[in-house]
Amino acid sequence: MQYWRQTFIWGCLTFLWTLLTVPLTVLGILVATPFLGPRKAFFTIGPLWARQMFWVSGISLERRGWEALPEDIRSTRQPVIFMSNHESQMDPPLLINAIPVPAVYIAKKEVKLIPFVGWAAMCAGVIWIDRGKRDRAIQSIKEAVEKIRRGRNVVIFVEGTRTHTGELLPFKKGGFQLAMDAGVPIVPLATVGGFQTLPWGTIFVRPGRYVVSFGEPVDTTSYTNRDELMQEVRVRIEALIADARKTGPGL
User: Fold this and answer.
1) H-state helical runs in the chain
2) I want to staple 25 with a disulfide (CB 3.0 to 4.6 A). Which of 49, 78, 100, 247 is the partner?
3) CATH number 2.40.40.20 is the correct assignment for the domain at 59-245
4) What is the pLDDT of the chain when averaged over all its residues?
């Protein structure tokens, strides 16, 4: 089976299967919403879609460090911002499954207009940012801060875009300012394996192994300098990536 998953034909079939199952999954979320509520419907059905896609694609997942996090974070009593590197387009669906608590992304409001994807994002409770005008952008950031303070876990890809080379890119500062304004911990997170399973420039998923590593939380309230906070988180993510890459072939 693993041999066939590495063929061009299987890659084409996997791509077509993705195109078919995404709208079906979103329709399932919408149907379940009146019974479960939108967020519970998304975080019940969404991870199931991710798991079946990983099986079809021949991707295995290893999660590290979650049990070492404080109980308040694991029980969702303490909201956090998970800050991750970004190796692949597989990372967003991967983290929906790999992070055991509901955690949403921050997205441009235009994503709402994308059929199926936008609908699912609204059910999940994605935090929308309006970048159209400066005053609207500032207001949407303030609203994001309040949602995080009230308990919304957030995932941010701190490089702002996918890597083209597999190496860590410079970090964007906005997420760190958001974390400091909200006063919530940052959990450094590393995903390793995406650059091999779905590298830049291809739509065909390859079999492989993903490692998702959670690091020790960083207390943002002890920092007054955003750049120092950013450097501390970068050092921790770099260490998590290096450790994951030592553990097996292809990583």
Assistant:
1) 2-5, 8-36, 38-57, 71-74, 91-98, 117-124, 134-149, 174-182, 194-197, 226-245
2) 49
3) no
4) 89
